[in-house]
Structures are given as structure tokens and as C-alpha cells.
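Inputs:
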Amino acid sequence: MLLGPSGCGKTTTLRMIAGLELPTSGEIHIGDKEVSNLPATKRDIAFVFQMFALYPHMNVRRNLSYPLISQGMRRRDVKAKVAEVAKILDIENILSSSVGGLSGGDRQRVALGRAIVRDPQAFLMDEPLGALDAEFREHMAEELRALHDRMNATTVYVTHDQLEAMQMGDKIVVMNNGVVEQFGTPQEVHDRPATLFVANFIGSPAMNLMPFAGSVNVGTSDVLLGQCRINIPKQLQEASGELVLGVRPEHVSLHTDGQYRGRILASEYLGTTQIVTLETEHGLTKARIGSNINVEVGEQAALEFDTDAITLFEQSSGTALNSERSSTGRAHG
Amino acid sequence: MADVILSGVNKSFGVGQSSVAALVDMDLHIPDGSFVVLLGPTGAGKTTTLRLIAGLEKTDAGDIHIGGHSVIDTTPAQRNVAMVFQQYSLYPHLTVRDNLAFPLKSPMLKTAKADIKARVSEVAEVLQISDKLDNKATELSGGEMQRVSIGRALVRSPSIFLMDEPLSSLDAKLRSELRLELKRLQADLGATFLYVTHDQIEAMTMATHVGVLDEGRLVQFGTPREIYENPDSVYVASRLGLPRINTLPASLINARPENAETIGLRPEHIVLNQPSGETDLAGNVVRIEPLGDQTRLHLSVAGQALVTLVEPHSNLNAGDAVTVSLQNPLFFDRNGMRLR
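Outputs:
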């Protein structure tokens, strides 16, 4: 999963893997072969675009057969292959339909089918679900993931939708300004952001980031945030100056008594949970708590953080500081 | 600002056999100062409702009142409504200031120059774009352009703001910021908003009232909490809640109301591994799906797929046997209507 805001370089990365762009420098390998200077047609990969790239005047069967026929495959083999792919995608009943009359989902399935029939070494997908409405997107995301598990083919998938990335990815590459900010499993990227950018980009709402001036040494297990002592995971690295304490809204709880306090500004109801926004000495802080807990806008509340879920960052470099918690599974570029 | 009332409104598009009913007997009361969100999938009639109130479409039958007066025979300009669309409708060659002033320069309004100036700076202040007033519209980011679009609606003090998915082309972070901002703005101004979206998060977090539309009909109207906790039908229940409400055959349990065909289960209706008696069902874990903000637990119960939420660091693993107990689940009849 290549994930990042528009302009971060995710589509460029995909296009270079496909051979639609050439790298200015560096090498690209597919399997154990260097492909940096091979044309797109020699790379044995399949590209699925956001727009359904289908031939509107052909029926589904001919759309699926076309990539094979143009490769010079024998008619009988083409027929068998198309039948197999139609079965995988559950579109056997529409093989004779014309593409024009298909629903959005069926079109997307046929577009996928055209990529699958060639048995490529890798699939490249550029926001293939971007054009679908929310409900259907969720359904197709599950279908794609299941398809991937059945075929076990390497897939590089570009999206700016973090839920999609979390839901479907084995690994996520978070990109910004052409640079890889973090490469890790969805859980790692969420729980142990390597940089302030990742902390801010992943999560809905994003991680709470509270700047403070202070210093930590190897073994430090608390910091002073204003007047309040906050327990943190044992640190493995020294740092001082402008630091940032990061904690996700899921790891903030509200209580009546406690040192670190804030005024409740808003509560956003989300069904099972609610997001409470508080004004504290260190800026706005959000907490995601059960919607059965009663909160009054305007009231004061004490905030408590899950110690294990806290990450410290260095403001100047924007990178996370190593702690006992982060050292177990940190993966960076 | 004003109450907006639709009574018995019908609207079809096309003629004869190919005619499609877009709205059927729509009764809708938008109270003064409320933030009403219309929610429904593509084709449910959300945008048609908005366009009828704006006067961009004519009703086939029924009446529309704004501030106590029937408006069906008036032009869009006479209705004094403001629309904000998904696509920013700005004049690219004009500065932000001129874009904001434009609606006030209409010859119909005859606004004095000094008043225009004061109003524009006031609105720019509210939307935090004062420092961008002299920029060309094309020099703005997506979020800023949408703020200016909203600003163009604000300068006129219209009787109602009609918004058609104004945030849907923005990225997630900006969307969540503007959500809070729009809500604050509406509350501060005491303005009446009718807001169309298919994003349930927007509906839940901003609305004072949610209207759920299904194929041109208003099927439920209430606060977000009422719609979520007390839905009238399976259809309404499926509009709100992530993960989506689970539906199982009611025959799985004995303790069910007469005529119950379907059980509706949200995560808060599901208790794991605390057997409680007659609603206990045996199942097993299919997979655990960490999504960051929430961790989903996919279960198989009596051959049915069930999705619920679980603590991120639970001890459950794929294949584990679990007991599922139901706590105040929702029941629906064979037509999908709620049984209470």
C-alpha cells in the first residue's frame, strides 16, 4: 500500500515500477531481474487504473480475451483461461453482456479480470476503487483482499484512503514530499509512528501532539508537561530541547480527578464511540471514548494517557525517539 | 433565517414510461436554526430535495414554505437561499475579496460599497482567510477554496444554507477540521443548514437532525442518536454505524418477539465470553482486523458472518471458540420494519 497526500509521489512510484516513467537515478528490480531500462511491455506486470479501461464496443468475454489473443495465445487456451478468471471473479453469468450496460462493480471486476488473465508477476493498482461510492467501495475492498489471498500475487496499491490501506495492506508505505516516511504493517504505522508526519496523517482523528521543552535520557520514564508529571515508556535515547508528546485519541481517557486538565469544547457522536475535544494548556486534545459516557460541553475534565501508547518526538528532526515500546517492532524505510 | 417546510412534495424526471420518481410525498420540516443532514445512497433524492428548495427545479405537486411563505411560484433569486456545491464555484480570475463581494454587488441588492467592504472582512474573519483576501482564487489550496465558496454563501445572510457534499472532494484531515468549523459556524450564526451527504460521519457529527432517504421517500427523521439507537427499519439501521449493523436470522434464538425475521446486532449488542443464558450462541474467530482507530473482530456464528469490535490487544486468535451473548438486540419483521 502506497499511502500519502496528493503530490507525495505515490503514483510516480507506481508508474516507474510499471515502466511508464524512467527513474532519474537508482534501480528497480522485479523478481531477481533489473528492469530499470526495460519498456513497460517487457516487465510482465498488470496495471489497474481508477478509470475502467474497458473496450466499450466488446462484450465481457472479448474484453477478457483480448490481452491473451494479442499475446498470441491459442484460442482453446484463451477460452479456458477466461473461464477460470470469470469463475474467480464471479462474473460467469455476464460473459456475453456488453460492457456498456454493466454496473460500476461489474465493470471494475471485468477491469480486474483483464489484469488477472495474463498471470503477471505483479499487479499495480492506482486507486482502483476511487470512483465507487462508499458502501460499494467497502464491499469491493473485501473482495480484492480475498482475491489477493487466493492468488497470492504481489500487489502494489496506491491510495490516499487510510482505511482502505489499513484494511487491505500487509505492509503500508507512508509517503510525503517524495520521501518514504515509514514502511511497516498497518498496526506498526498506527501504534508506533516513525515521524511526526505519520503521527499526523494516520488515524481519524490524528494523533494528539503536545509540544513541550524538556530533556530525556536513556532510562527516563516520565516527563514534565507544564506542571504535570506524565509517565512514558522507558526511553532508549537521549534528546533535549523542543520535544513533542504524542498519544492517540483512543488512548486518552477522561476522569473527574487528576492533574492534567482541560475544558470540554465539543463532543462528536459516532454511535459506538464519541470524540471529545478538550482545550488544554498544550493545545486541543481529542479523546475517543464510549458514547455511553456523559460529557458536558464547558465542563472541566482530567485527562489520562495510556503510558504504553505514548510516543515522544524530536521537533527539529520530526522523528520519533526510541523507547522500550518502539524498539520491538520499529521499521523505517 | 427561517423555518423551511416541504409538504406533500412529489417530483419525477422524464416522461411517460421512462419517468422516474425522484421524490415521493415528501414531508420535511427544517426548524429555524437547525442543522439538518439528508443521508442516503446515490439516487435517494437528496440533491433533488436541495434543488427544489433552491428553486432550480419545479415541484410536480406539493408546497414549499420558507419563513411562512409559499415559494413555489418564486425564482431562485427571490428565495434568498445560498448554495454550496462539492465543486468550488469560484471566479478564477478574481481575488478572494472580489469573489466574496460578488454576490453583494448584484443590482437587486443595491448594497452600499462601505457595507460590502465591512461584510467581506467580517466573513473573512469568521472563516480565517483574512490574510488571503488579495490572493487570486487559483492560488489557494483546496481547503481554502472551499472556505471561500462557503464565504460567498455567508456574505448574503440567506434564509437557509443549502450544501451539497461540500467536503467530499477534500482529504480526510481537512474534512475533519472543516467539519468542526462548519458546525461551530452554524451554531454561532444561529443559521439554518440543509446539508446533503452520503458520509455517515458527517451526518453523525454535525447534524442536529438527520433525515434518512430511501428511493425518494423520507423514511426517518430524528437526532443522530435516535437514528442510530432507535432505527425504524433495517435500511435506516444500516445507514449509521461502523462496522455496519450485523443482520442474522431471528430463528437462531428462542427469546424473540413474535413475527421477528431478522436480528440486528451492533457491537454494543454483542457480549463475548460471558455466557448469560438463553441468548448465548457458539461461534469462532475468523480473523482480527486492526484498523487503527478500531479493531474489528470477524466471527462465524451458526454459519453466519458477524463483525464486531474488540480491544486492540485482546488475547483472541483466529480459530478460537467464543460465546456470543446478545444484549438488547434490535428485531425486524419480514419487511425489514422494526419490532419494538
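Remarks. Chain B is about 25% helix and 30% strand. Chain B touches chain A through 33 residues (CB under 8 Å).
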